[in-house]
Write a structure and sequence with these properties.
The chain is 53% helix and 7% strand. The chain has a four-stranded mixed beta sheet with strand order 2-3-5-4. It is built from 30 helices and eleven strands. The longest helix is centred in the middle third of the chain and has 23 residues. The two termini are 18 Å apart.
């Protein structure tokens, strides 16, 4: 559940949303995908000794239906629904008291953004007009130099190159500039270099969507097809020069591979056609003291492509990117086209209500403003304190586990426990809030538009990020919204974030038993702490810097144990004929197993602990039903194993599970002792 950042255009943005959402965890049985996922066919007489996930969740799996407009139903979805309803109550209260707020208040801006989303009549009347100026500027480009000058227009989105400002992973006290690769319609370069049947299907859906949106903007079918073909030609040329997910998962020194220090002059020498000095100057980031180029080969190839001969390929790419980005903020026909596309891609039927859509818009675009109100209303000091205490207890359990490891030397143990001592724990809500006072969010009646609102907020966020270049990292700058139903570990901050949204509903309830809460929020916290010691987190020290804190032999043993986990999961058939990518998911699998290890240690110290309540609560935490299309789509792209195997592949690693449920070698859940997994 760690924070995954993906930049790009429509499919890449969709992938980003999937990966960041708890709904990205799948729990479907391979043999039952066709029936259970789509019609919730019954699971009868399943012994928990043979299939613990199905047995514990059988009633729910037999009776639950995926709601209209959704691709999943899960425990996370249930909590999301609760949080959405809480947010809805906040917004309704603001609407009922709208005359109390001044024009520049956060409350007034939330009201305007919400109403603008719902104001379909005004959006339809404006049509394409809000984005027309930007599109006309792109269409007018006739030379490669004019294409480069598009970067000077802050409202034109250009995902041919991505620029981000983040902590230096080798000196986390300072913020530096990172240059990343081109956003791709199909998300990952592997989808272009090694296409599957699913890739071909998804590409066709994406092409149809792009064509439809271009026609809505005024092009003929023939003109639209030429532009879409040009876009994919560009992507198909650039994708092979980029590292795909498969290569990344197999690269042992991936972090160093993607940490390439360049000066601006060196970048210009590497890619003279691109003219990065001019681009960075137009963005106000040319004075970056340190620049990291994540993929030099990509930039070399992009430089070769960036010529007058390929002008229309790149130009059409940028035009479609901007049209797709704007589509959710324009007239209803664009919005409908977007929803039809995502519904086809993920097997969704129907749609969510307009009201819920407007709530989601406010949450995604002014999340900190609505989150501040949410925190005041729904995150009590008592709950925050209790979850903080649970976190401290898990950290102490982790220290004991580390100190009891037989395979690790004392020097490495000391460094590992030092990392736990310095772990920055953020529970509930951030210490600092975003100041929206300089942003003008006008209603349609005031001459504004939903598209203008989106661009205003986007440019504000980008300017705030740009200001951080060369500046000391803000130790209190917590970039998370309280209402988020997820949890995160940041390796280069050595911190875990447990937002208020995930300590609502099932995951944490002060009225539930201790064992039940440990099987909910406890395992989530344990999972996030374990990311400090997964295949990526293990390369960062207690201060969040890339640093080797291992003895040579210890790290070799860690690597072998991680490989054993990767190979174990690679044998699991998650969907008919489709196995889990054990190497791509190894970090999350290490975190799942490590988290449960700590929680079982805590239960061992309790007086008459109810292990069944814990194990069965854990299975309930990860229960999920998805559409067939969603399951297929996410199996390829998610870094997590499907939910079913976050239960059925994790619990058999622990002897206590065998003891409690009397599991023997004759049972389906049995794993031979010598094949069982464990690092921490």
């Amino acid at each position: 559940m760690n924070n995954i950042k993906r930049l790009g255009i429509i499919a890449s943005i969709l992938i980003f949303m999937l990966m960041m959402s708890p709904a990205s965890y799948i729990g479907v049985k391979a043999a039952e995908v066709e029936s259970k996922v789509e019609t919730a066919s019954t699971i009868k007489d399943v012994r928990l000794q043979d299939d613990f996930y199905d047995a514990i969740n059988s009633k729910w799996l037999n009776t639950t239906k995926i709601e209209e407009g959704k691709s999943t139903a899960s425990t996370f979805d249930d909590v999301e629904e609760k949080v959405t309803n809480q947010t809805k109550d906040i917004i309704n209260n603001l609407l009922n008291n709208k005359d109390q707020y001044n024009a520049n208040s956060d409350e007034k801006k939330i009201i305007n953004l919400y109403n603008n989303t719902l104001n379909v009549e005004a959006r339809d009347k404006a049509g394409l007009k809000p984005v027309e100026k930007n599109l006309d500027e792109i269409k007018a480009v006739k030379t490669i130099d004019e294409l480069t000058k598009l970067w000077t227009n802050k409202e034109i989105i250009n995902s041919t190159i991505t620029f981000t400002v983040e902590r230096d992973i080798k000196d986390t006290k300072t913020n530096i500039l990172y240059i990343g690769t081109t956003g791709l319609s199909l998300g990952d370069p592997d989808e272009y270099t090694n296409p599957t049947e699913n890739t071909i299907k998804n590409k066709k859906l994406t092409e149809n969507y792009y064509n439809k949106v271009l026609v809505l903007s005024g092009y003929t079918q023939e003109e639209a097809k030429i532009k879409v073909d040009n876009m994919f030609k560009f992507e198909e040329i650039i994708a092979p020069a980029m590292m795909g997910k498969h290569e990344k998962s197999r690269t042992s020194n991936l972090i160093d591979t993607m940490y390439n220090v360049y000066t601006l002059d060196e970048l210009d020498y590497l890619a003279p056609n691109v003219n990065l000095p001019a681009i960075m100057s137009s963005l106000g980031i040319e004075k970056a003291n340190k620049i990291i180029l994540q993929d030099p080969m990509w930039l070399k190839i992009f430089n070769k492509i960036y010529t007058q001969g390929n002008l229309y390929l790149i130009k059409n790419y940028i035009e479609i990117v901007n049209l797709i980005h704007a589509s959710n903020f324009l007239s209803e026909d664009f919005e409908i086209a977007n929803k039809e596309y995502t519904n086809s891609l993920l097997g969704v039927t129907g749609s969510i209500s307009k009201e819920k859509d407007a709530i989601n818009t406010v949450d995604s675009m002014m999340g900190m403003a609505i989150g501040k109100i949410y925190a005041e209303r729904y995150i009590s000091k008592e709950t925050k304190k209790d979850v903080e205490d649970i976190t401290k207890e898990i950290i102490e359990a982790y220290k004991k586990r580390i100190n009891n490891l037989e395979w690790m030397s004392s020097s490495t143990k000391k460094n590992a426990t030092d990392k736990l001592d310095k772990l920055n724990v953020k529970i509930g809500y951030p210490e600092e809030w975003v100041d929206y006072s300089k942003i003008n969010i006008r209603s349609y009646e005031e001459g504004g538009s939903l598209f203008q609102n989106a661009m205003e907020l986007r440019n504000f966020a980008r300017n705030e990020i740009s200001k951080k270049i060369n500046q000391p990292a803000d130790e209190n700058g917590d970039d998370f919204t309280p209402q988020t139903v997820n949890a995160f570990y940041s390796a280069n901050e050595n911190s875990i974030i447990i937002p208020g949204g995930i300590i609502q509903g099932y995951f944490y309830d002060s009225n539930r038993t201790r064992e039940e809460n440990l099987g909910g929020i406890g395992v989530i916290i344990g999972h996030e702490i374990s990311h400090a010691f997964d295949n990526t987190g293990s390369q960062y020290d207690s201060n969040g810097n890339i640093s080797n804190w291992w003895s040579k032999r210890d790290y070799e043993q860690f690597t072998e144990k991680a490989k054993k986990i990767a190979n174990f999961y690679s044998q699991i058939e998650a969907l008919p004929g489709e196995k889990i990518n054990g190497y791509a998911t190894v970090g999350e699998n290490i975190a799942d197993i490590g988290g449960v290890s700590c929680l079982l240690d805590i239960l061992d110290t309790m007086d008459k602990p109810n292990y069944k309540a814990f194990f069965e609560g854990y299975a309930t935490t990860w229960r999920q039903m998805t559409t067939k299309e969603y399951a297929e789509y996410v199996l390829i792209l998610d870094d997590h194993s499907p939910n079913k195997f976050r239960v059925d592949a994790v619990l058999p690693q622990f002897q206590k599970f065998y003891d409690i449920y009397k599991i023997t070698e004759k049972d389906g859940m049995y794993v031979k002792p010598e094949d069982r997994l464990g690092i921490w």
